[in-house]
Amino acid sequence: MRFNFFRTKGVFDTAGGMRRRLIFNIVAVAVLFYSVFFVAHIAVSAFTDTQIPNEYREAANVDLTLSIIHGDNPYSLANLESSKPGLVFQYGALFSLLVAGVHFIVPFIDVTALHYIVAFICVMSAAVMASAMAREHTKTLLPCVSVFLFTVVCTWRYGYINAVPDTLGVTLLVLVLFVETRRDLKAKEFIEALISVAVFYTKQYFVVIALSLFIYKLIIDKKACVRLTISGLVLLAVSVALIHIWCPLYFTYSLLVVHGVSGQSTGATAPVFSFIGLNGTSGVVAASEYNEPPSGWLFELQQVKSLAGIFIFIFAGMAVGVIKAFRCRTPSFPGSRLFVIHSGTAALALLYLGQNDGAWLSYYLQILMPTVIIYAFISMERLCLDDRLKKPYLAAFTGMLLFMVMFTVYRCDGRLPVYDKSDEAKRVWDKAYGYCDLYAGNGEILYVAPLGFNALSNGRYLYDNGHEMAINEDFYEEYKSSSFYRTVFPYAGAVMEQHLAYRDEMREKVRQQGYSLVTAVPGYETIADSSLLKRSGYELIDTLTLDMGRTGFDVEFWAPMLL
């Protein structure tokens, strides 16, 4: 199918009447202007002060990218023989490989800023593809521009643009949908299998699209399902074999270690009555003011409540479209069944993933909402312009479509604010980095993850990039007691032993006042807690609340006492 975004001839027929289409296009112009300012706002926010992270563990991705740029292999067994452990990265490496590749083309751009640039391009790419699919199957601009705007919203993660793989994952997920809706595309199943394998090496949970695709193909075309399955298994087997040869530690980090931290998060279910009194707030608030269950089913319930509060009319629109397609026994548009199947598959997957305490709404927006948004707007506009329906139904559907747009824009703008770094927040960050730069001249600094950008941008050693601390004594004991873990991940024991032993060395170095500055975050697992630091002759020189998007973190700065 040839796609012409600005096509007019032969398309604007009598369906729906000129007046109704005119109303939709007028509303579309307003949404378009809002979208332009919205995108410009998040771009300015993202590319201002890129050395200030938007989440606790953001430095991990930059750490991996720099390792690749420097020619190091963090997944090599040689790291087990090193005096210092190699870096730990729990997600797929594809996003960092992409950024490193772009860096070789434009080496003059700061690597941290380059992560934001690539992430922003991913956001725009996903939104454009989603918008194109809506445009192909509708007759006004309203679904097209609305889908663009709300797909941009789907990439939200504590401030929209981050140096993490999520944005690439959303782009690849939408790309699968885009490929499936190309009627005459050759080798479609092979391309879809390739994208599905790629998404597994981007952010693991996005691989749910592969399951959705398999179910969809199994229902509509069993031969295509066989081609997809064989292609996917061959590509996966080849990639796993090559990774095992060149990067034998890769799956230890991306499957075992990430399971360790996510399993701990989703495993703790808050008491039922703790839900009483929850204020349901969202947006950018201080950590001390943010009131949510730490993890578990009630955490998920709060996320679902927030999601419904924002997208209630979008979900209603999809439900209406599904009912209409079921009654007519025909798909709403080519490939539309995949959108419905993925929405259901993603919703089931989120019964587990949604309990993760790092998932506040972002997992739902990334995995679930793209298909819901695209399907809902296409279906609702078709209903609104269907002259076969009686006038009361047309009026109801028209009103619902307009509410889908206006209500969701209003709720997105209020519930998912762009993170603007205030002048006061910037001054606090400048003060924190000032401490690091001042004490770096006197010796090595023991960095904590939120300050990782400062270490990486200045070529200083960073142990805790936010992912290493997933390895702990409890997880090591769990590993040793599991024959399955020991068989599938034979190197994990050596990795954990190395990290735990090195942390003991770091604590001994603290006792000997071997660090010129030690940083710590109370309440988070750190190398040296306050009691050890006090016993070792360190004094607390300052505690700064560092604003990192949706929440802030209290970071302590400890220096050796002057004798």
Summarize the SSE layout with pairings.
Blueprint: H1 18-46, H2 59-69, H3 94-105, H4 111-136, H5 142-154, H6 166-180, H7 188-200, H8 208-220, H9 222-246, H10 250-267, H11 297-328, H12 336-353, H13 362-384, H14 391-415, H15 423-440, E1 445-446, H16 452-457, H17 473-480, H18 483-488, H19 492-511, E2 517-520, H20 530-535, E3 538-548, E4 551-560
Parallel strand pairs: 1-2
Antiparallel strand pairs: 2-4, 3-4
- Mean pLDDT comes to 88
Q: H/E order of the elements?
A: HHHHHHHHHHHHHHHEHHHHEHEE
Distance between the termini: 77 Å
Uncertain ranges: 5-13, 263-290
Q: In order across it, which strands form the biggest sheet?
A: 1-2-4-3
Shape: globular
- Strand fraction: under 5%
What radius of gyration results from the CA coordinates? 25 Å
Number of strands: 4
Structural class: mainly alpha
Annotation field: number of helices: 20
**What percent of residues adopt helix (DSSP H or I)?**
55-70%
For the biggest sheet, the summary is:
4 strands, mixed
